[in-house]
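To the wet lab folks,

You asked to see what we're planning to order before we commit. Fair enough. Below is the target structure as tokens, and below that is the sequence we designed to fit it. If anything looks off to you, flag it before the synthesis order goes out.
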């Protein structure tokens, strides 16, 4: 199955209303790439490691991503999303760059992309957790 990745480059102030628009348009969830996450202090009670790549984040503003199935209504759905985002200007929101881009993603790529974030973790001298796809 093919999916459309809808990326919206906007301002931090518009994260909540744009996320709502995407949910109402059929997205099951959103991905928010906010450069503020790179400098945020984190509570690492259990020794979590946050390996965030600066290149995955915009220099200014935030990027909100949503995934919708490719179907015959996709163009209409995207036009509706753009129209609703532009309608936010009435409420005096800072929408930043307000740039919408669309790309296609194969489900096979998407279904396994999460694996790149999981690597072997050494718990103690004799105990290491190694994901099955790692050597």
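Sequence we intend to order:
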């Amino acid at each position: 199955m093919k999916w459309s990745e809808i990326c919206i480059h906007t301002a931090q102030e518009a994260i909540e209303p744009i996320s709502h628009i995407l949910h109402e348009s059929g997205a099951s969830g959103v991905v928010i790439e906010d450069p503020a996450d790179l400098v945020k202090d984190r509570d690492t009670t259990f020794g979590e490691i946050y390996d965030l790549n600066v290149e995955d984040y915009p220099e200014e503003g935030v990027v909100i991503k949503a995934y919708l199935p490719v179907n015959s209504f996709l163009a209409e759905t995207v036009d509706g999303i753009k129209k609703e985002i532009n309608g936010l200007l009435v409420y005096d929101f800072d929408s930043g760059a307000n740039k919408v881009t669309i790309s296609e993603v194969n489900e096979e790529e998407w279904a396994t992309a999460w694996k790149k974030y999981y690597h072997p973790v050494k718990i103690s001298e004799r105990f290491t957790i190694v994901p099955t796809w790692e050597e």
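Structural context that might help your review: The chain has three helices and six strands. The longest strand covers residues 2-10.

Thanks,
Computational group
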